[in-house]
Amino acid sequence: MRVDCHLHTVHSGDAVTTVDRLAERVREERLDVVCVTDHHTLAGAHEALSRAIGARVIVGEEIRTYAGEIIGLFLTERVPYVLPLEDAVRRIRAQGGLVYAPHPFDAARTSLGAAGLSELHTMGALDVVEVFNAKTADEEDNRRAARFAAEHGLPAAAGSDAHDPQGIGAAYAEMPDFDGPEEFLRSLTEARIIGEFRPHVGYRPGSRP
């Protein structure tokens, strides 16, 4: 299964990918599962769920906390943004979701960094570490995430972090099939991480997203 664990739609507010274009890119990239992780909303994931996009959809949300950004996966309810890290984790866990650390060492974004990542791990609340983010320009940042996951025995994942159609599928985990959060974590332990750096694409007014 090819699983892009982190991508955005127009519902994020800073992305241009419509659900129609997501469906096209799913076919072109031969993705089996997409985690739709818009900023502070589940609307894009729910729209993708309601449509035949050609891939299974995991409902997620990228959430800004005081410590940095985290992602909740397998959500049923939106988590408010700019909460203390512990509160955001509690809300994710209360709905049976997983806590995923995106681009944790990328200083160019609102990332957890070493301190936030360690805090999550100490809380026993770090389920998945994103070890390849296709928008992370410095390869060492991804390597640091991979080392952290390996040293702490944590499942590793990959996401395109696509905000435009061209970015979708730039990074993914190739893993066994799964059903639900617990099997997702088990399958990630057998995943092969695939990825390439693919920067954001700008759009001219009137161009097709």
UniProtKB/TrEMBL annotation:
**InterPro entries cross-referenced by the UniProt entry:** PHP_dom, PHP_domain, Pol/His_phosphatase_N, Pol/histidinol_Pase-like
Q: Which GO terms describe its molecular function?
A: 5'-3' DNA exonuclease activity; 5'-3' RNA exonuclease activity
Polymerase/histidinol phosphatase N-terminal domain mapped to chain residues: 3-67
Which superkingdom, per the lineage?
A: Bacteria
Protein name (Swiss-Prot/TrEMBL): Histidinol-phosphatase
Organism the protein comes from: Actinoallomurus iriomotensis
